[in-house]
Design a protein that fits this description.
The protein has 155 residues and is an alpha+beta fold. It is built from four helices and seven strands; from the N terminus they run βββββααααββ.
Length: 155
Amino acid sequence: MEGQAVREYGAFINGAFRAMGTSTFEARDAASGALLATLSRCGPTEIDDAVEAARRAFPAWSNLTAEERSAKILQFAALVEDQAEELAQLECMDTGRHISEMREDYRAAVSHLRYFASISLAHHASAASWHRDTWSRSECHWAYVDRSFPGTIPW
């Protein structure tokens, strides 16, 4: 990143980055201390706005067919897979974790996304009609669906 302009990121809400807020924090390379980016520190307003955006998006998502939801999750999995090396490198710089761990994390993330895309087809229904819990296991990661509480994909 040496010689490059430091990137600034506002909160990403409802599909768009917001302007930088007045409260910010720095992301630094764990090994060198070099500045990677400056980010807005979100507060109650941004959290409320993000929750409201999710509430507004939910009806459209829930009205998609299982095939449409599966296709969107698979599309996201393909994007993560295409950018996995770059994401792993950035995560390494940010956290200081070993590159092999980060590559495995992104491989597992893609695997989990594909798994959840497949179960939406296998069950042909919304989560509310599923009657048993579902597990996904990769080499060193577990994914668990608890149907007692509605949730979102954490990305």
